[in-house]
Structure formats: structure tokens, C-alpha cells
Specification:
470 residues; alpha/beta; 11-stranded mixed beta sheet; 6-stranded parallel beta sheet; elongated
């Protein structure tokens, strides 16, 4: 199940509840060290030099505990207890070019401005451009707010303990947190804390989508309709169609503009391709629709808007609104039990709300809820680092997968199609929230899988890998 995103006070209460059961701090520290070591191994190779920077608190204890589990690596622990004299020791160690630094200088208990000496040490570490694995929180970060105490370690990966802390989700903290991962198996009791934010875990999607019946046929799994593509942007329609096909609905049809029919159809085989014109009824077998990818040709705007609003108000099917269609959508309600999904990136979210992109990023959860409320309580997938999935009310889910290499043209088209292909399937419409979370997680996890294998993968590669992550 997802884990809640909590503040420092809640984390302290969770620790107290754990100690009350008889579990010891020593054992939890040992397990944290084991998890840190496991992640450090994935970031390094045999015989690589790993430098552990250990402060005087429990954060330093966590980092020290990793050494026991790092056989096969050259490990040095630098005790960081006297910042006024430790800078020189750090600089000497950095000259040895460690493959990885494990940061255990400061934890979530830090609540004061760092001294000039500590700032110098942290700045020297950042200047060295050596990958850093931070234990629980990047040293110097305010784990509640995402602000800082004068200087912050710039981590490649932050392995936070138990659950993410609220400040790690702040856009201003992203450059320090790097890739945020959760060590949720370190001996703590079940988290007693509640939160509106839930962090997705890979285990949330075990056996999802559920297995199909042995006697199922293509009519059992729906028909995805992709209304997408225009002159100069026909590839978006093709990619959205690829995405839908990777979700394996029974049928997939691309409805595109007549002037791009041939290039679009020539790239597709199993998918059907038809010409789209406003007012033309979709086949009765259609069970989910996406509209908008690659429909950016200026002459299409009026036709697209004319077709969009009746679909939004009246279509008794899941409808995904993406890309060019987003900015043409007018506020309004839709059938009570119908599924509606908006998939904006931060810039599009700003246009939907009439605010600058920076304001969206400063309060991503609030922006998601405001968009949902404006458009009748629909589902919103607010894309970007730590993509959010939610509505005006209820839990908001934070995606844990993905990497910066998803920032390629066509990535969002692929996701929109994948979402639609999943929602076309009757059994996956029953819990739309989980289906959307799975789509977002799978999209990011497939990108992570590719990044681990190839430095120069493309969205076309992602279209092949999508659906394979486990």
C-alpha cells in the first residue's frame, strides 16, 4: 500500500510508537545501514571507493552502519565532528575521487542556520560533482518546508527512512533531493500517521492489472479511441496510439486529420485509422476516448473546441483531455458516474488556472485540487517531477518512478494513450484512481528501466518498453 507523506513531528511519533513495541534503535539503524549499502552497491562497481561522511547524530549512525554491508567496495568513514578543522580532511578525501559519497552529516532534526564552516564543507562537496547518496534527507535541507539552513548537499539519490517528508516534495527542494526513494522495510511499525499525500510504491501494483479470463476475447477488453494528430504533428497521434496498444485493449482506433492520414496509417498495423471530423459519431464499441495529442495546427482550434465541450458534458465514457485540447476546455460538469481525466504539465496547468507556471510549482497539490474543482471534480494527472494524481477531494498520490530523460517530445502523448488504453477496459474502470496511478508509475518505471540500460533511449524505445516494468 502507498505510504503517507509526513512531517518531522509525525516521524517522531512514529519512532516513539516503534520503540514502545520493544524494537530498538540499534536494530533499526542496522537495517537502515543495510538499505543504504544495497542502494550504494547499485550506484557503484566492484572495488569502487565509497566515502561515508558521518555526523554526530543518528543520521551519522545510519551512514556508519552501511560499512558493514559494503564488502567488495573500498570504504572510508570520515567522522565529521569538528567542522572548523574538518574542511581540510574533506578536501583531501575528495582529491581521491570517490565513486560515491554517502551523506550522513545532518538529519531531519536540524533546525538552525549552519555555521560558516559547515557551509564551506557542503559547498566543497557540491563543487566536487561526485554522486551523493543522502541518508534520510540531504544535509542542510528543512525536511518540513523544503527550505534550507544556509547550504544543502546536492544528492543524486535520497533514501529517506519510513516515508517521504513533506519538504522533499517542494519544488525548491528537488535540486537537492535528486531521486527520492523510500526505505520502508527498516523495522518500524506500521505507520500510524495520516496524510492527504500518498507516496506510490512498486509493490502497490503487484498483480495489477488483474489477470484476464481464459475465455476472454477482444470484445471483453474495450475499444480505445485516439482523437489526435494534425499536419506537422501527426507523430503525436501515432505515439498516443502506441501507448494505447501497450495497455492491450481489445481494439484501438486512431481518428486523425485527413491531411495526415497516410503518414499516420503507414506507421500502424494492428490499430485501425479513420479520418476525424467534428460531429461524426464514434463507433458504438468505443469504451474510452482521448482527445488532444498533436492537435496543435492553428486551423483546428475552433473545430476541436466545438467537438470537445459536448463530449465533456455528455459522453458516458472515460474521456482523457490532453495537450492542445486542455486550453480549449471550459469549466463545467459532466455525468455523475463518468470518468474525466486532465493531463496537464505545469505550463498547461497554469493556463487552466490563469496563473504563472511558477505559482503552480510552488503549490502543486493546491493547483491540482483547484483544477479538479474548476472542472467538475475530475481526475487530474499533474505531470512533472513527482507527478501527482488526484481530485478536488480525497487522497493525492505522488509518483515515485521516472527520471529527467522523460523530458522528450512525445513522452506525454504516449502516457495519454496508455491511460486511455487502460481505461477502455471495463475491469480497469472500476477503480479509476488506481488505474491512473498505475499508468503514471508504469510510464516512469519503464523510463527508469531504459535509463539503466541505455544513455540515449528515445520515446520510440519507451513505446516498446511501456508495460514491462515490474
Amino acid at each position: 500500500m502507498p505510504v503517507p507523506v509526513i512531517n518531522v513531528a509525525a516521524m517522531r511519533e512514529w519512532e516513539k510508537a516503534t520503540w514502545a513495541t520493544g524494537q530498538t534503535e540499534v536494530e533499526v539503524i542496522r537495517l537502515v545501514g543495510k538499505r543504504l549499502a544495497r542502494r550504494a552497491r547499485r550506484l557503484t562497481g566492484a572495488d569502487d571507493f565509497i566515502l561515508i561522511l558521518a555526523g554526530k547524530g543518528h543520521n551519522g549512525d545510519d551512514a556508519r552502519a552501511a560499512k558493514e554491508f559494503l564488502d567488495g567496495r573500498k570504504v572510508k568513514i570520515l567522522e565529521m565532528l569538528l567542522p572548523d578543522t574538518d574542511l581540510l580532511k574533506v578536501q583531501m578525501m575528495l582529491k581521491e575521487k570517490p565513486a560515491l559519497i554517502i551523506d550522513g552529516l545532518f538529519g531531519i532534526g536540524l533546525n538552525r542556520e549552519l555555521s560558516a564552516s559547515w557551509k564551506e564543507i557542503i559547498n566543497a562537496i557540491n563543487a566536487a560533482k561526485i554522486p551523493v547518496l543522502s541518508a534520510d534527507v540531504p544535509s542542510g535541507l528543512n525536511a518540513d518546508t523544503g527550505g534550507n539552513f544556509g547550504a544543502v548537499i546536492e544528492a543524486a539519490v535520497t533514501l529517506t527512512i519510513g516515508a517521504p517528508k513533506t519538504g522533499m516534495l517542494a519544488a525548491e527542494a528537488w535540486q537537492y533531493v535528486g531521486r527520492l526513494e523510500v526505505a520502508d522495510d527498516v523495522g518500524l511499525v506500521l505507520c500510524p500517521c495520516q496524510s492527504e499525500l500518498q507516496w506510490m510504491l512498486a509493490d502497490d501494483f503487484q498483480n495489477f492489472p488483474p489477470p484476464r479470463g481464459v475465455a476472454d476475447h477482444k470484445g471483453s477488453h474495450g475499444h480505445a479511441a485516439i482523437i489526435a494528430g494534425s499536419f506537422g504533428f501527426h507523430g503525436a497521434g501515432v505515439l498516443a496510439t502506441y501507448g494505447a496498444q501497450r495497455a492491450q485493449p481489445g481494439l484501438t482506433t486512431l481518428f486523425t486529420q485527413e491531411n495526415v492520414y497516410v503518414p499516420a496509417a503507414s506507421q500502424l498495423q494492428a490499430a485501425m485509422v479513420n479520418v476525424w471530423k467534428p460531429g461524426v459519431a464514434l463507433p458504438e464499441s468505443v469504451s474510452a476516448v482521448v482527445i488532444g495529442p498533436g492537435m496543435a495546427a492553428p486551423e483546428l482550434a475552433e473545430k476541436l473546441k466545438h467537438a470537445l465541450m459536448p463530449m465533456w458534458r455528455d459522453l458516458d465514457l472515460p474521456l482523457v483531455v490532453d495537450a492542445s485540447a486542455l486550453t480549449l476546455l471550459e469549466a463545467g460538469t459532466f455525468p455523475k458516474d463518468a470518468i474525466r481525466v486532465l493531463t496537464p504539465h505545469p505550463g498547461e496547468a497554469g493556463k487552466l488556472l490563469g496563473v504563472p507556471t511558477a505559482k503552480v510549482q510552488a503549490d502543486r497539490v493546491g493547483s491540482l485540487r483547484a483544477i479538479s474543482k474548476k472542472f467538475g471534480g475530475c481526475w487530474v494527472v499533474l505531470k512533472g517531477n513527482q507527478t501527482l494524481v488526484g481530485r478536488a477531494e480525497g487522497d493525492v498520490y505522488v509518483n515515485s518512478s521516472g527520471n529527467p530523460h522523460l523530458a522528450q517530445g512525445g513522452s506525454g502523448d504516449l502516457l495519454a494513450g496508455f491511460i486511455t488504453g487502460l481505461l477502455a477496459q471495463p475491469m480497469l474502470q472500476q477503480d479509476a484512481g488506481k488505474t491512473l496511478c498505475y499508468a503514471v508509475w508504469q510510464h516512469g518505471a519503464a523510463a527508469d528501466k531504459l535509463q539503466a540500460l541505455h544513455a540515449n533511449w528515445t520515446v520510440e524505445d519507451l513505446a516498446i518498453e511501456l508495460g514491462n516494468a515490474r
